[in-house]
Structures are given as structure tokens and as C-alpha cells.
Design goal:
alpha/beta; Uracil-DNA Glycosylase, subunit E; 6-stranded mixed β-sheet; 7 helices; globular
Amino acid sequence: MLHQEICSCSKCFAEPNALKDAEKLAEETNDHHICCGFKMCLLGHGNYDARVAFIGEAPSLAPTGNRMVFGHKSFPVFFKLLEELDLKFEDVYLTNLVKCYLPHAQTGEIVNCDVYLEREIRVLSPPICILFGQKVVKHFFPEASIWGEKHTRSGVFGRIYLTLPHPMLCVYRPEMKETYFKTVRKVKRLMDQKSLEFWQK
């Protein structure tokens, strides 16, 4: 099960404890970020020195009732995706656009959580972010396609962004699996084209 960590939130009544690496994020988490009013927030999980971060829509609810960064049903597809990208689970970082479990992330919650996502990405500073799903892609790049595009943003988000449908697409629509992994291989080629830039940061 993915390790869960609680962030400080003025509406969630949680103790101030952002990511596990307290020294790295102390300055970023002194003040409470604005949340969407749910009881507890779930932050990202993974390697804080990761060079690749995956950004999904919102935490999922496991059968046990625990919140998870990504839904357990998508794990087989996600691990296959990592294999296609020549990545290991322990070497990547996973997070979400919205930090609270919601059946569907709405515009209000996305706006409320955006300030924390900006801090999270700025502090961890991965050279590449892979955006999962239409809602996430459109938040960063309103005109972008989810089907394997490469984008950059200046300022806080000055890094490479690659787009993909969420792995759950293959769960809900198994007939799309071949098309999905064809797009994953396209993303891998985009990564390889810039590999020197990514890995020599």
C-alpha cells in the first residue's frame, strides 16, 4: 500500500506534517495551505529526489477505506507503464492535482489545492512531469492533447511536461490498451530525445 502522509490544512484540522522530508519542506509548509474542506489531505508519495513525477487528478479510496495516491485498480497498468519507460517505482514520485479524496475533482477544489501543488513541484523540482488525464492536462495546458505531447512552462513550472491518458483508461476500456501503450512508447521517445537534459540536471 502506498505510504500516506498528512499535510497541514486550515480546514482539515491535521497536524503540520507535510512531506516526510521535513527539513526540505519546512519553509514551504509553515503556513497552512487552503484546502477544499475535507477531513484530511493526502500528499504525494515516492522518491523526493525523483527525476520523473506523475501527476494524477485526485487521491483514490482503497477497499480498506484508506486513501491512496493512485487507485489500486490502475496498479497493473501503471507498473507496465513504468516498465515501458525504463523506470522503477522506487525512483519516481506520485502526486495529484487535488489533495483530498473526492469522487470527482471540481474547479473549486482544483483552484484551492493549486497553491500546494505549485509548492510541491517547486521544492521537489523534478526535471520531467507526466500529466495523467484530461483534467490534469487541461489545468496545465488548456489547448493540449492527452495523447503524448511535450510542453514547457516558465516560472515555477519551468520544466518538461509530457501528457498521457490516465492508466484507468485501460481498466474501463480494455480495447484501448494497445493505443494507450503506443502512446506510452511515444512518450518514451520524447524522453529519450531529451535524456541528456533530463538526467544531467
